[in-house]
Each structure stands twice: as C-alpha cells, then as structure tokens.
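SAMPLE LOG
Freezer: B-3
Tube label: C17
Construct: single chain, 69 aa
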Amino acid sequence: MQQDNDPTHWVAEEMIKEWCIGKVSSVQMLPSWPPSSPKLSPIDNFWGWVKAKVDETRCKTFDEFQLTA
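STRUCTURE (predicted):
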C-alpha cells in the first residue's frame, strides 16, 4: 500500500508513520506523485472506462439508461 500526495493523507502523516513502525509496514508517502494519481488507483481507470461506456449510450436520464440495459 502507498499513499499518494492527496492533502487529506498528509493530515494523518504522523499517525501513518507510527502505525508503520509498529506494524513493520512499507507504507510510505510519495511527495513527488500528484494527488489522486490514477497510476496509484486502478479504480480511477475503471471508473473512466465505465463513464466512457455510459457516454456511448448517449442517454440523458437514468430512465433512458435503464431501457438500454
């Protein structure tokens, strides 16, 4: 597990460091990575794919989308 440079992660930086020492973990902050980097979050790539598939339907409402399924 790795932490990207999201500001919300830095709030807990000391707690993460203490946890890592206690658990002998390799969790680390990555100061050179952009926040919420898709390279660290495969789910972001998945949601991008889902959005593209939904956009292909050209539906304007959820009801229209349900009719295409």
